[in-house]
Design brief:
7 helices, mainly alpha
Length: 211
Amino acid sequence: METLTTLHFFYLGGSIPSIIQRHAGSLTDYLKALLALFKEYESIKAQSDPTTSRTKSVVGVGRRLFRARVKSETSLSTVSSSTSLNEHHLRAGRNSSGSIPSSLAFIPSPTTSSIPEYSYLSVCHLPFVPDLAQTFLCLCETLIEAYKHIDTLVPNWQAVPQDVQELVSKLDDKVYKNVVAPSLKDIETPFRNVSYTESPSSKLSSLLSRA
C-alpha cells in the first residue's frame, strides 16, 4: 500500500505544474482542470486498489511467475554446467534489453496500452519507487503553488461569482479527501496502536522509575 501511495502522490504532484502553465489566465478553466485532474487521480487509485479482483489477479500472476522462475533457476543450477549457466544469463540479458518475454507481456504496466489515456494526470513508468516522505513533501509544496495561482487570478475575493466559489470549495474537498485525510490516517494509526498497547500501570511504573 505504501508503494502505491507513493506512486499516486508522485503522479499527482507531477501533473499540477502543467495545469498551472496551461491555465494562466482563466480562473474557471483552471479550477475545472484541477477538478478533472483529481477525478482522473481517483480513477487510477480505484484501478490500483489491492482489494479489486483485477489487482488480485495481477498479484497472483506475479507470485506464480516468481515461483516458476525460482524453481527453474534452482533446477538449472543443479543440472547445468557453468557454460550453460553463462548462456542462460546472456539470454536473460538480451531479453531484458530487447524484447519482453511472452510470459510477462500481459502484466499491466504504465508503459502498455492497459493504462487508459488521461487528459491531465501524467502517468509514467519509474524504474524505482520514490521516497514517500519526500514525495509527500513535494506534493504539498506543489499544492501550495496551485493555491497561490488561484490567488493571483482573483483580484478581489469579494467580487468572485458564486459558481467560482463552489469550484474552489469542491477543490478543497478533493484535496482533503485524496491527500490530507489519508496522510492523517497513516500518521494517527501508529500512535493509536502505541497508546492501546501501553497500559496505565506500565505508564505509572515508568514514571515511578524516573522519579
